[in-house]
Amino acid sequence: MIEAESGRVIFNKDEHEKMKIASITKIMTAHLAIKHGDLSDKVKISSKASSTEGSSLYLKNGQTVTLEYLIYGLMLRSGNDAAVAIAEHISGSVEAFAELMNKETEALKMTNTYFTNPHGLDTDDRHVSTAYDMAILTQQAIRNKTFKKVFSTAKYTPSYKDAYPWTNKHRLVTGLYPHADRGKTGYTKKAGRTLVTTAHKNDMTFIAVTINGPDDWNDHMSLFEHAFTHYKMTELLAKGPLPILPGMPDQIQYISEVNRKMPLTTEERQQLVYQIVPEKKPVLNIYINRTEILSTPIKEKKIEAPSAYENLIRKLKELFKW
């Protein structure tokens, strides 16, 4: 489990172990469909897409639908036929789309992930990822407003005649856990139950990922409850001039160009230590109990030494408490 804004890992267990991930694969498929396509695109369904096994939207060969229809069906109903149709529309074939998926894993530094298909079916043992990599993917994907909207939808009614409403299969999102706002389910016999959930409360959004978790609904709720109970979003760094730290030259003002927040426990907030490394490109390091939690470049500005007159006035003010 990570916090979405900072990426801080709140809980981890075997988070880098390569495993089959089933339909949470479709988070990457939807992410790329939204990134490279347009929701209004018209997509003609191929025989390959319509005959894809497993969970389905029951698409028909030769049928034409919008990309929006396919993305919602992919995420809410986990349509494997929709996944293939999206892959063929974006890249021309499932194989070419898998190449695009793997290029995106490189860009996102998902170093233990390899995709061979857009749906997560157990058709190739090379198709694997990790809990950590899927959390990083989700963190990136929810930065897109369209993806966030699809990912958080509990019920969707397609605009086609005689269409019936689709209900999200993710029980936490549809009411089981009040703070859960987005997510994707997955299951195959080889992968077991896989689940990705985001939950928001108290200015914090956490992303939980479990793979082969037979009690995943309860696992996710327990993770979220622990995080919301023990952590508070804390401002580590404000944009602008930094306070002068002990040992730093009086003639230099260090400046942060960014704001940084991170969830911390009460104990951690009491253990924060700031250290500036004044090299050619100065860096601010922040530690909790000697463990680095943030390292960020900062700017420096030279401050002219005060004149003798200014020093005299300052001393008089201190002396007479002006």
From TrEMBL:
EC number: 3.4.16.4
Active site (record annotation): S23 (acyl-ester intermediate), K26 (proton acceptor), S78
All copies of domain Peptidase S11 D-alanyl-D-alanine carboxypeptidase A N-terminal, residue ranges: 2-213
Annotated binding of substrate, by residue: K184
Single Gene Ontology MF annotation: serine-type D-Ala-D-Ala carboxypeptidase activity
One example of a Gene Ontology biological process annotation: proteolysis
InterPro entries per record: Beta-lactam/transpept-like, Peptidase_S11, Peptidase_S11_N
Origin superkingdom: Bacteria
Pfam families: Peptidase_S11
Keywords: Carboxypeptidase, Cell shape, Cell wall biogenesis/degradation, Hydrolase, Peptidoglycan synthesis, Protease, Signal
Family stated for the protein in its record: Belongs to the peptidase S11 family.
Name by which UniProt lists this protein: Serine-type D-Ala-D-Ala carboxypeptidase
Source species of the chain: Jeotgalibacillus malaysiensis
